[in-house]
UniProtKB/TrEMBL annotation:
It comes from Belnapia rosea. GO terms for biological process: amino acid metabolic process; ethanolamine catabolic process. It is found in: Bacterial microcompartment. This is Ethanolamine ammonia-lyase large subunit. InterPro entries: Aldolase_TIM, EutB, EutB_dom_2_sf, EutB_N_sf. Substrate binds at R158, L159, Q160, N191, E286, D361. One of its GO terms (molecular function) is ethanolamine ammonia-lyase activity. It is an enzyme of class 4 (lyase). Binds between the large and small subunits.
Length: 454
């Protein structure tokens, strides 16, 4: 089925849903690289108008990637909840945008399982930044393991103590730095420089020893491949969260070395450990626009639609944490600060709308046309939008992954500017240790011993 729309005396034709979604997407370099972007702004407006008139039901009848060719498509359609969809089933995409802008938190929560990722992606393409912020701010998603994340009025931080050679001393120093600055309630999560079992075991033991010694109500994670985490669990390692990068097609997940069946195996193994104290959400997923194109596994879909499909994969496993690493893949996919900002807000909106505890790594690579001012703007917009968590990296400069993210101080800024607080269990721990009082007075301790961490 084709679609047509006239703008300025020119009639534009879009042969299928996949093409319509791609042409309607706000400009980004990855879609231009793939030859899927609208050739002119006028064509983009025509596609957005045609998309606005499209009934939401159409997404249940035309898959952007065939059902028989892709296990992610099968997951999306097989899990669709017709009852949850009923309140908006009569709407067009444009009408759905209006409905979202008027809906309250309870109505948005009831809708989650009735939406497909393509529905979420489609409506985001015709929304302004303020629309994306306003709706996401009313999508309240909580998750639990050793603390409670995503409550209204809260902002959590992932403490990211990466070291270029996995030196335990460097990792431990960064952990201490982050804890003193109120970071770590989302997770203390290390990206290993070398993804092998022995390194993973050593880092897991270090993280668990720090958490246990100081009685920190948080979770730890070594962001190794899921198969490495499975081997670590077989060896009796203290695995809290199982991490994996995922994408929105079977092919991109295959390029990551995973499948839905493998993720389910890891999920069940982590559940069996029973390490959570206030909940059982034990999976951690990262995503990012452009991963499918870089793996040549996008099936002709635009990168934002494929990104939204990754959230269906995440949703299947009730994760504690999901975040888009929005600017990490590089300017080939998101060229500059404007494109990174738009993508970060789209990803957060779509993830929250679909029911995920969504965070964003507010980041860029050094060869992108972006700087820290761009990141400050995106960070602030995400804070207003109710982002579940952001990253805390020493100095905002990840010396192992070689990219620019957000610092511990950026997290403190956002909490102070918006009146946000850490996860309640972590906040209580900070108060017991004296950290909250010291940071609230603007006077951080000079030595760990002064607050009992020596």
């Amino acid at each position: 089925m084709g679609f047509a729309q006239a703008v300025g005396g020119t009639r534009y034709l879009f042969p299928d849903l996949r093409t319509l979604l791609a042409r309607a997407t706000p400009l980004r370099s990855g879609d231009v690289l793939a030859g899927m972007a609208a050739e002119t702004a006028q064509e983009r407006v025509a596609a957005q108008r045609a998309l606005a008139d499209l009934p939401l039901r159409h997404f249940l009848n035309e898959a952007v990637i065939p059902y028989e060719a892709d296990e992610v498509t099968r997951l999306i359609l097989d899990r669709h909840d017709a009852g949850a969809f009923a309140p908006v089933a009569h709407l067009t995409v444009g009408g759905f945008r209006d409905w979202l802008l008027a809906a309250g938190p309870e109505a948005l929560a009831r809708l989650r399982r009735g939406l497909t990722p393509e529905m979420a992606a489609s409506v985001s393409k015709i929304m302004r930044l303020q629309d994306l912020v306003a709706v996401a701010a009313r999508c309240h998603v909580t998750s639990r393991f050793r603390n409670t994340l995503g409550l209204p009025g809260r902002l959590s931080l992932r403490l990211q103590p990466n070291d270029p050679v996995d030196d335990p001393r460097g990792v431990a120093a960064a952990i201490l730095d982050g804890l003193l600055l109120g970071s770590g309630d989302a997770v203390i999560g290390v990206n290993p420089a070398t993804d092998n079992l022995e390194t993973t075991l050593r880092l897991l033991e270090l993280l668990d020893a720090v958490r246990d010694r100081y009685g920190i109500p948080t979770q730890s994670c070594v962001l190794a491949h899921v198969t490495t985490s499975l081997l670590a669990m077989e060896r009796g390692a203290p695995v809290d969260l199982v991490f994996q990068s995922i994408g929105g097609t079977e092919g991109v997940n295959r390029s990551f070395g995973v499948s839905l069946a493998l993720l389910e195996e890891a999920h069940q193994a982590a559940l069996a450990l029973g390490r959570g104290t206030v909940g059982t959400d034990c999976m951690y997923f990262e995503t990012g626009q452009g991963s499918a194109l870089s793996a040549e596994a996008h099936h002709g879909c635009d990168q934002q639609t494929v990104e939204a499909r990754a959230y269906a994969v995440a949703r299947e496993f009730s994760p504690l944490l999901v975040n888009s690493v929005v600017g990490f893949i590089g300017p080939e996919y998101l060229f500059d600060g404007k494109q990174i900002t738009r993508a970060g807000l789209e990803d957060h909106f779509c993830g929250k709308l679909l029911g995920l505890p969504m965070g964003v790594d507010v980041c860029y690579t050094n060869h992108a046309e972006a700087d820290q001012d761009d990141m400050d703007a995106l960070l602030t917009l995400l804070g207003v939008a109710g982002v579940t968590y952001v990253m805390g990296v020493p100095g905002a400069d990840d010396v192992m992954l070689a990219y620019q993210s957000t610092s511990f101080h950026d997290g403190l800024y956002l909490r102070a500017a918006l009146g946000r607080r850490p996860a309640p269990e972590f906040e209580a721990w900070m108060e017991r240790m004296g950290i909250e009082a010291a940071s609230g007075a603007g006077q951080l301790p000079l030595a760990p011993a002064l607050i009992g961490l020596g």
